[in-house]
């Protein structure tokens, strides 16, 4: 009985979504795994394990809805400062999830991409990641980008260094540097700007995520902890996004003719 009720509710929310105006690029800060576990008297590792279920549900729901680009913040440059045992657990979980979920990606025609300082990841993670990226390279329904060992400041720093090197070697002129040149040197060079950022767990901050790419993004914060984030919560976020007027500096009258 309860299950039927949930399905009906999901369907109602789904009907409220206008599939012609979906965010082109949705980015999610998946936060709250540790607190979810703590509330239940469990180890943080159990929180991370349960977080992978929400990843699967979110990825499949986004693909079904028709979202073209989904970026998930999975591990930040700052997360390297966590206790070694937690970092090791997260890396192991990454390897096992990639092994397990390649089928989900293939079945749903999803292409995997990764951004961040990937060479800092353990070899086992790099190997698995590159294997799944290669195998899903021709998929076209949605691009799923995992931000791993990712920090926006580091991303900007490496872009500045690459551009400086090219100017020094006369590959590009100083005058030619514009926003598009900067975009081309970011890890996200193949992706459009972010339209919507969702952060779970009640924290209202960006934590060094996609600073350049979110310049005009909409933000949706929810108190739900990541392991509890469901299809329904995703729909709620998209419905909220679709009710907003994105003016990009213009007046309301200019937007609605
Ligand atoms: C998000 O959950 C996962 C990662 C950052 C890897 P947290 O582990 O940050 O969970 P809280 O914030 O401690 O609850
Ligand atoms: C941000 O979450 C990074 C990821 C979700 C991977 P954190 O839990 O690390 O962020 P802070 O430290 O609370 O800002
Ligand atoms: Mg956190």
From TrEMBL:
Belongs to the UPP synthase family. It comes from the Bacteria. The active site is at residues 31, 79. It comes from Flavobacterium cucumis. This is Isoprenyl transferase. SUPFAM superfamilies: Undecaprenyl diphosphate synthase. Catalyzes the condensation of isopentenyl diphosphate (IPP) with allylic pyrophosphates generating different type of terpenoids. GO terms for molecular function: ditrans,polycis-polyprenyl diphosphate synthase [(2E,6E)-farnesyl diphosphate specific] activity; magnesium ion binding. Keywords: Magnesium, Metal-binding, Transferase. HAMAP family: ISPT. Binds 2 magnesium ions per subunit. Homodimer. Its cofactor is Mg(2+). InterPro entries: UPP_synth-like, UPP_synth-like_CS, UPP_synth-like_sf. PROSITE patterns: UPP_SYNTHASE (PS01066). Substrate binds at residues 32-36, 44, 48, 76-78, 80, 82, 199, 205-207. GO terms for biological process: polyprenol biosynthetic process. Its EC number is 2.5.1.-. Mg(2+) binds at residues 31, 218. PANTHER family: DEHYDRODOLICHYL DIPHOSPHATE SYNTHASE 2, DEHYDRODOLICHYL DIPHOSPHATE SYNTHASE FAMILY MEMBER.
